[in-house]
Amino acid sequence: MKYIKTIGMISNVGQGRGFFNPNSCAFSSSGDMFMLNSGLNRVTVQTFDEDFLTEFATWYGNKPGDKKLNTPTDLEFDSNDRLYITDEVENAIFIYDVEGNFIDQWGKAGSNQGEFNGPSGLTIDSKDNIYVVDQYNNRVQKFSKDGEFIFSWGEFGNNPSEFNLPWGICVDNSDNIYVADWRNDRVQKFTQDGEFVFSLGTTGRGKEELIRPSDVAVDSNFNIYISDWGNERVVVLDKEGVYVSSERGQSTLTTGWTTEFFESNVDERDTREISNLIPSLPEHLQTPYHESSQSEPLFWGITDLAIDNFDRLYVTELRRHRCQIYE
Questions:
Q1: Is the pLDDT reported for residue 115 higher than 70?
Q2: pLDDT band at residue 66 using 50, 70 and 90 as cut-offs
Q3: Are 232 and 294 within 8 A, CB to CB?
Q4: CA-wise closest residue to 304 among 168, 123, 110
Q5: Rounded to an integer, what distance in angstroms lies between the CA atom of residue 160 and that of residue 186?
Q6: Continuous segment of H or E residues that includes residue 289
Q7: Phi and psi torsions of 188, nearest 5°
Q8: How far apart, in Å, are the Cα atoms of 287 and each of 106, 232, 243, 245, 265?
Q9: How many angstroms separate the most distant Cα atoms in the chain?
Q10: Which pLDDT band, with edges at 50, 70 and 90, does 295 fall under?
């Protein structure tokens, strides 16, 4: 993984550029980056070059007819640039166009077919079928793009095809489905028909082990990337699931947003320059969490992995309100 840049800075005012508890990003056909912010419940839109374009679905309701989110968890575009967003409190799927205009919503609370109990991850295959991780029902449900239930699979447990609080999900170029089985400390791979293929990971801090994986992504060469939340890292595997490498993070201040901020806030810039942003920690604090919380370049609280139209990997960090980008 080759580090490219970081996009992001904290913005808790609910308007304008910046992120607040970001938890997922997706890309329109034109390549614009749509970031879902669980803090203040909004979607921000920006280019790779960090031009801020717009925001929508915010509690501030900055557009006439703006449909506000409650507790959004994931988002993804279909082939027609319709944006689908899961909301775990509303137990619904919200749909917007690429301009941020609300189109429709479907779903309700429950455990029957087509109902949700805390929907989290969402992915869309090449035929625009939608797969939703139904977190507390411990299953994956498949729908048409219009919300028509097709089938589901999974139940509580730790055997193949069973789940324990699943969270992230993705689809590869062959329409295979990968699910981050959060509390089982593994990723499971399935066919588009929900047939179990294999499982990746066991509990631990070793190179092929995981602790609470939050998401998974697959590139055009079928390499697999897992956000290992509990170990504060990204684990890279080949298409057969064989370990390749892992990455703890390399963020710098090359982002244009932060550079412009410090140009206008000289006192904060000067204080930063004399601060120790990569301190040496005592032995009892040398854990992934403490290392990440005290060392600015490192990943801290990875919630989402996404691959853009150029096969670049975006690593979204909830706790540092930013997204690191890699080749």
A1: yes
A2: low
A3: no
A4: 168
A5: 11
A6: helix 288-294
A7: -110, 140
A8: 42, 10, 22, 19, 33
A9: 58
A10: very high
| Distance from C-alpha of 192 to C-alpha of 16, rounded to nearest angstrom | 39
Q: Which CATH superfamily is domain 3-275+288-326 in?
A: TolB, C-terminal domain (2.120.10.30)
User: Does residue 135 contact residue 184 with C-beta atoms inside 8 Å?
Assistant: no
Judging by DSSP bridges, how do beta strands 233-237 and 139-143 pair with one another?
Answer: unpaired
Cα(273)–Cα(49) distance, integer angstroms: 25
Distance CA 90, CA 246 (A): 36
What's the whole-number mean pLDDT along residues 202-225? 97
Q: How far apart, in whole angstroms, are the C-alpha atoms of residue 36 and residue 323?
A: 12
- Would you say residue 64 has pLDDT above 80? no
**What's the pTM value of the predicted model, to 2 decimals?**
0.94
Mean pLDDT to the nearest integer, 103-131: 97
CA distances from 319 to 37, 77, 136, 181 (A): 12, 25, 24, 21
Over the stretch 21-60, which tens digit does the pLDDT of each residue have? 999 999 999 999 999 999 889 999 999 999 999 999 876 5
Q: What is the DSSP string of 245-280?
A: EEE-----S--HHHHHHHHH-HHHHHHHHTS-SSPP
Tokens read off for 271: 């204080």
Q: Spell out the domain ranges in the chain.
A: 3-275+288-326
Tokens representing residue 75 in the block? 């988002």
Q: Would you give the DSSP letter of residue 37?
A: E
Which tokens in the block code for residue 247?
């990455």
Higher pLDDT, 257 or 176: 176
Q: With beta carbons less than 8 A apart as the criterion, state whether 297 and 278 touch.
A: yes
Tokens of 189: 């791979």
- Locus of tokens 């919300």: 147
DSSP state of 284: G
